[in-house]
């Protein structure tokens, strides 16, 4: 007991010391003192409606960098996740699902609370994904937030109930593939029309006229909205596939 | 003038709620250390969450509602605080309830020291 007390005290002193040291700039000053030239470039050009040569038509810096300035990087990230998921699916092929005889789930208190939380989670994830080009968020973040909903449903109800609701593996694979196809289409369409791959807005040295950044009165930020929605479907369905694969009990499998 | 006085009163109510939250956190952590078994400790943890997170969040929300130097944005800030308090108030008891239910049902944690355990019959005996 005394040993535990000493360890606790030491840990508290250590953490407290680090906090004090950071707040008094012992490890060097905070990096926010100077805006570097690269950051200055993005801040000046990202949503510059007066000089549109380098603009991305999005007031949200992270989203503009992820899908416009460094778009190919995000495409490769999506590819990495896609490849990992192919591995997961390959491990699970040839196995048969085994149902437990009875899966009542947790108590009614947990179920009622889970329904409320799942509704909130889905709403927040949609806002994150569909408004990612205006406010902080984006397709990946929205997809990850959405994936919490089926996870909670698996924990509170059961995997079978999730399947009754329509969260099925084949459907997830289909939606994921549709999202990937949409991303590929949006990336390649400017190239077909005379621009470069993943081009968003008009550039004076190339033919492509740029994606429209408004539809009627709605501001959509060029290709960013569509890329965010596609990425939302890809990421949410991939995480759903992981959770379904982890929660099913498989039998057999020797082929 | 009256409005300003009401503003100050609400501000100090918020300050009081925040202090109460700090006290609840202290008592919750003390209970987490000193209580005899898992289920009672869960109760102490919930004191720490509801008393130590929801109550101060409401207090900070009231305080930001009365901070006129924030301008119009104080309503947005207060709304975020109240929403977070609401969600935490729903989620935290459900979490501890699920933990207690699952550990009792799965016989992971022994109920000890025990005066009476009415749920034991329901789950089917001691062993």
Characterise this structure.
The complex is a heterodimer of chains A (255) and B (127). Chain A is built from 9 helices and 4 strands. Chain A has helices at residues 2-23, 37-45, 61-69, 71-92, 108-130, 139-156, 159-165, 169-192, 224-247, and strands at residues 96-98, 214-215, 218-219, 249-251. In chain A, α6 crosses α7 (159-165), α6 (139-156) runs parallel beside α9 (224-247) and α8 runs antiparallel to α9. In chain A, 62% of the residues lie in helices and 4% in strands. Chain A starts with a helix and ends with a strand. Chain A has 255 residues and is mainly alpha-helical. Chain B has one domain. Chain B has helices spanning 2-34, 38-65, 73-105, 119-123. Chain B is elongated and about 65 Å long. The model of chain B has no long low-confidence stretch (mean pLDDT 89). At the A-B interface, α5 of A face α3 of B.
The helix/strand order of chain A is HHHHEHHHHEEHE
Quickly count the domains of chain B.
Answer: 1
* Fraction in helix of chain A: 55-70%
Instruction: Point out poorly predicted stretches of chain B.
Output: none
Number of helical elements of chain A:
9
Distance between the termini of chain B: 69 Å
Mean pLDDT of chain B, rounded to whole units?
89
Radius of gyration of chain A: 24 Å
Number of strands of chain A: 4
The fraction of residues assigned to DSSP E strands of chain B is under 5%
Q: What's the helix count of chain B? A: 4
Q: Main interface pair?
A: A-B, 11 and 8 residues
